[in-house]
Fold this sequence. Notes:
Largest sheet: 6 strands, mixed
Organism: Thalassospira tepidiphila MCCC 1A03514
Keywords: ATP-binding, Cell membrane, Membrane, Nucleotide-binding, Translocase, Transport
Pfam family, one: ABC_tran
Mean pLDDT: 91
CATH superfamily of the largest domain: P-loop containing nucleotide triphosphate hydrolases
Order of helices and strands: EEEHEEEHHHEHEHEEHHEEEEEEEEEE
Subunit structure: The complex is composed of two ATP-binding proteins (PotA), two transmembrane proteins (PotB and PotC) and a solute-binding protein (PotD).
Strand content: 25-35%
Shape: elongated
Bound molecules: adenosine-5'-triphosphate
Structural class: alpha+beta
Number of domains: 2
Strand order of the largest sheet: 6-7-8-3-9-10
CATH topology of the largest domain: Rossmann fold
Amino acid sequence: MSEVVISAKSVGKTFGSGADKVTALDDVSVDIFQNEFFTMLGPSGCGKTTLLRLIGGFEQATSGQILLEGKALNDLPPYKRPINTVFQSYALFPHLTVRQNITFGLEMQGVARKQADDRAEEMLELVRLAQYGDRVPSQLSGGQQQRIALARALAPAPKVLLLDEPLSALDLKLRKEMQVELKRLQTETGITFVFVTHDQEEALAMSDRIAVMKSGEILQIGAPREIYEAPTHRFVADFIGDSNFLVGNLVDDGAGKRAVKLGGGQVIELTQDVSSQRSGEVTVSVRPERLGLVAESQAGDNQLVGTVSTVIYFGTDTTYQIDLGNDALLTVRMQNGSGAKADFAQGERVGITMSPDSIRVLAD
Length: 364
Ligand code: ATP
């Protein structure tokens, strides 16, 4: 396991006082590792920018601590931290050339002119803009300006680079390109990237680990696959990808294993480790692509059955809405051309298949 670079220990942050008091962060703890692409993901107002600003030193925590390599950062001002930030607005100096934009900070830190110039060339190579050193920012496209902002932030070789929604000003195509580019820069430099976004696809595509935030709290931290396939909370399952939610009861399957009994009576043994302390009604989440359909005549005893209410053909897959009765709808996504029958018609009665490992029991 690599070393922890940044630790947040029970960090709280409030703004204002009295009736205007806002809790931006509530008892947040997280360890971020060396050489990690770490993303804080959540909807507007969940506190992700505040956490980033605390790490950068632009705000002070109301309670708890931020540590860098085990040492409390406390009142250390931003410029004394080996941490740099790339803002959404790029914040390049308009009257300086690209090269000067990069060398400026280095020279302020006392790096000799020649060395700063060499470093600038190295950084321009890194972001693949070696021939643009003599231009001024207004002569560059948005994507190029973004790369220069990155080159400038990476030039002093910070231990941590903070990125606050750096791609949100770019159009979709450029954004996708820059996602790949950012990932490459992180891997090549080995610098820890702490990235803030509200875009779940972006988070899944780039991150080693994601912290999903809601209302000032971190709900789940994990690798993209873990967050997607094993969401712990309804909010996480809903915010990242599509999910179906079913209500069932936790039971023992008779062989000492934990299982969920769904509304129709179907009992599904769980592969998930659910505490023996839990019992009674639970909500489970299941991804649409982890469900399948069979003709009703092939459905087993107690298997969930319903009526196809909508069919949407997407080329690679077909998405079905299944009406289970009592206003309960289920979304099922089946790959086309995979061999399984995937051409059910509107109005057809169908049985729903699901494998045990597709079912996730959510936290209360
Ligand atoms: P967004 O994606 O919209 O930037 P966010 O998840 O980054 O949202 P924060 O900017 O961290 O959220 O804000 C968290 C909460 O703290 C919000 O309710 C916000 O209004 C509040 N907040 C942030 N900064 C301040 C401030 N300087 N003064 C008062 N309230 C603030």
